[in-house]
Amino acid sequence: MNILVVGASGYIGGRLVPLLQAGGHDLVLMSRDARTLAARFPAARVVAADLLEPSTLPPALEGIEIAYYLAHSMGAGERGFAERDRQAARNFAQAARRAGVSRIVYLGGLGDDASDLSHHLASRHETGAELDDVDRHLRLFGRNRRAVAAFRDADHLPVPATDVAADVRAHLRAEGEDPAGWQIVLVTNLRVLGYVFNPASFFLCRDGSGTLRVVVIEVHNTFGGRHLYTLRPGDGQEGPAGPFTAGMDKDFFVSPFISMDGRYSVHVRDEPAALKLAINLRQDGEPLLSTSLVLRRLRLTDRNLLRLLLEHPLVTQKTMGLILYHALRLWLRGAPFFRHGEVMRAKEAAR
Predict the structure, then answer these.
(1) 6 touches 32 (CB < 8 A)
(2) Under a CB-based contact definition with an 8 Å cutoff, are residues 227 and 252 in contact?
(3) Is 325 exposed, middle or buried (0-12, 13-18, 19+ CB in 10 A)?
(4) Per-position DSSP letters for 163-227, written without gaps between them
């Protein structure tokens, strides 16, 4: 994995670099003074760059997948360090987004924002907010605010999330997993002009080695229900880059035209060019439903968002429209119909 360490000359960074090297990662170390780091870590590539000079950052970030951000400005003098830290983090976050960096690991400090924090600790929190606040720099995208394309934490998880990242980690711990150090990617639709309906969203949970350890599938139905399936890999797992395969019994009412019987099989293949997801449903050993997605990665920029919104206008509204259209066609054809209330009462009675 290609990893950038910003702040490798510090106490934490100087001890992190040997651990990452021992793990077989390809390291890039960024510093204003490249000579000192190059002498200390000759096996790493050292790039001279200044966080307060945005034009110097792209060479350090080229090809980087994960960046460790351990820098702070107090070494340059106490006065004005907080603003320098905010500006440095803002510059780095923007450059990392343009370079396609998938994850920034930040060394901050513990504390409650509602309490009286020291000037230094408050600055640590502000710096972290700059690194995490993607939507501040985009016109078309917003998180938990109105925007043309918006992500709302509360649109996810059976108990609507307040912080989806923290809440899904809490779910994993409740399922017996230890997600410390894991990278979790959510595959979902955004709200478009305030509306979204996600039949299925996928939390892809990778451990520190990059192995896809758990897939959490969040299923919604048109009756307002939400349900989580937590899957571990089956025999089809072929290492970190191989396909993830798993199965699960149908345990959630989705469609009035499909009974509660059956078993799903799930396939996930994460390739450099595309992410491929498939869910198939079988009843009595016979295939009943087959769905798949083939997705390609794009940087989250206003230009890419605008292009996608124009190529696929009102995509979330169309999702619900197509669900209702096909339901009407099935009903007109006389397909078997299972009423939601009756099915749920029968399920409760069977427990």
Answers:
(1) no
(2) yes
(3) exposed
(4) SHHHHHHHHHHHTT---TT-EEEEE-PPEETTB---SEEEEEEE-TTS-EEEEEEEEE-TTS-EE
Q: Which helix (H) or strand (E) covers residue 120, if one does?
A: helix 119-132
Decide: 319 and 197 in contact? Cβ < 8 Å: yes
Residue 247: its H or E element: strand 244-249
Let me know: does 8 contact 41? Beta carbons within 8 Å: yes
Q: Give the three-state DSSP class for 124.
A: helix
Angle, CA of 136, 137 and 141, to the nearest 5°: 75
Pairing of strands 275-283, 286-295: antiparallel
Q: Read off the pLDDT of residues 175-234 as tens digits, 9 standing for 90 and up.
A: 999 987 788 889 999 999 999 999 999 999 988 788 899 999 999 999 999 999 999 997
Tell me, what DSSP letter sits at residue 244?
Answer: E
Q: Which two tokens stand for residue 312?
A: 């696929």
Query: Between helices 81-99 and 119-132, what is the axis angle to 10°?
Result: 20
Domains of the chain by residue range: 2-132, 141-350
Task: Report the DSSP beta bridge partners of residue 236.
Answer: none
DSSP state for residue 24 in the 8-state scheme: T
Q: How many CB atoms lie within 10 A of CB 229?
A: 19
Determine the CATH number of domain 2-132. Answer: 3.40.50.720
CB 67, CB 104: distance < 8 Å: yes
CB 127 within 8 A of CB 89: yes
**Amino acid letter, residue 279:** I
**CA pseudo-torsion sign 48, 50, 53, 54:** positive
Cα–Cα distance, 34 to 36 (Å, whole number) = 6
Sign, Cα dihedral of 265, 266, 271, 276? positive
Q: What is the full DSSP assignment across 68-102? A: EE---SGGG-STTHHHHHHHHHHHHHHHHHHHT--
- DSSP class of 334: T
pTM for the whole structure:
0.68
Q: What is the pLDDT of residues 260-272, one digit of tens each?
A: 989 999 999 988 7
**3-state class of 151 per DSSP?**
strand
SS3 label, residue 104 = strand
